[in-house]
Amino acid sequence: MTNLTLAPNLPLPYAQDWNLNIQRSLGNDLLLEIGYIGTKGTKLPRFVEGNPTVYVPGNSTPDNVDQRRLHSGCTIGEPESNCIYASTGLIAGNTNSSYHALQASARKRFSHGLSFLASYTFSKSIDYVSSFNMTGSAARPVAGENDLAQDPFNLAAERGRSLFDARHRFVLSYQWSLPFWQRPHNWYQHVLGSWQLNGIATAMSGTPFTVFDSNDYSLQGGAPEITGFTANRPNLVGNPNSGPRTPAEWFNTSAFAKVTDPGAFGTAGRNIVQGPAYVNWDFSAFKNFQGDGVKAVPVPGGVFNLLNHPNFFVPDSDISSPTFGEIQEARSQRADSAGA
Question: At residue 158, what are phi and psi to the nearest 5 degrees?
Fold first, then answer.
């Protein structure tokens, strides 16, 4: 039977944070800030295979996975019904994480019809697993990685970029009252004057994902209570991030090669492929109509994703899939109306 359990003496996880910020005012309405932020997580919880399979050369098949587990209670050749324990999802507190970031911002208070906040972050996040059973039992890693380690006896090999590691991120939010005919005197000034523009623009570099092989060439078997699919990875034979960056082939698929030796593990690391970047500009405009006894009546209108820029999800990362490397899904590309 499969099991889900806690490690004995499960430690208490903790985080350490530190930061340094420098601020400088320029005039009465502009504030500049630059700073460094660091975070370290220690003894973080993660799922591991608590009853791993041992590969026996010349005597290992997909049909005797449970008989080859360390604590199965049976041996190769016995009926599977004689086995006491199968896959065991173990919650262990044996992983760490680190985050370092340079953050800069410029903030302008509203004056002369304009206010804005511009911020930029240059960061790097490293861990051994970024999710805690995020996908549940699924046939494919919809989150971009597998919670399960490829080699249950070598958890250190899972060290890599975090699933959410976006190296560059820029955000600009603004409010601009156009300086045209704020006090209109004729019809065209009433039409073209008293406009206010607002917006939020975001540009972010892509987050990483893991290339895997749905074929269980390592003969480790699955872990239904952790992810529902195996964590095999192919061999790395080239640079996967050398292109071509198209929806038909987002990354260099020839940089990966299937493992052919039964019981072996691939050399490709976790989260080594760069996913698509994200760019979005949400825009809105307000027209203030003034009349007798009424100071201003705003009439809003706006659009999401004004540039109609396509933002893709990660491509198919299963080397055994016929659509390996292809973008299968994207966020809405329409400039939807945000006004009433």
Answer: -90, 0
Instruction: Provide the domain count of the chain.
Output: 1
User: Which single residue is written with the structure tokens 């300086």?
Assistant: 179
Assess contact for 196 and 288: CB atoms under 8 A.
yes
Would residue 22 count as lying in a domain? no
Does a structural domain hold residue 282? yes
> At CA 55, angle to CA 50 and CA 61, rounded to 5?
110
Report CA-CA distances (Å) from 334 to 248, 264, 337: 21, 46, 9
173-201 burial by CB neighbour count: b if 16+ within 10 A, else e?
eebbbeeebeebeeeeeeeebbbbebbeb
Listing DSSP states for 31-78 in one string gives EEEEEEEEEEEEEEEEEEESSPBPP-TTS--GGGTGGGBTT-SS-TTS
Virtual CA dihedral for 19, 22, 23, 24, nearest 10 degrees?
-170
Is the Cβ–Cβ distance between 240 and 251 less than 8 Å? yes
The number of beta carbons lying within 10 Å of the beta carbon of residue 42 is 15
Cα torsion through 27, 28, 30, 32, rounded to 10: 70
Q: How far apart are CA 150 and CA 161, in angstroms?
A: 16
Is residue 173 one of the residues assigned to a domain? yes
The reported pTM is: 0.84
Q: One digit per residue, pLDDT tens: the chain, 340 residues?
A: 678 889 998 999 999 999 999 999 998 899 999 999 999 999 999 989 999 999 999 899 999 999 999 999 998 988 888 889 888 889 999 999 999 999 999 999 998 889 999 999 999 999 999 887 655 555 455 556 778 899 999 999 999 999 999 999 999 999 988 776 566 566 666 666 677 889 999 999 999 999 999 899 999 988 877 776 778 999 999 999 998 899 999 999 999 999 999 999 999 999 999 999 999 998 888 776 655 444 554 555 566 777 778 889 889 999 999 999 999 888 765 544 433 3
Does a structural domain hold residue 249? yes
- Quick one: which of 154, 165, 163, 141 has its CA closest to 213? 141
Range of the domain at 153: 105-126+145-303
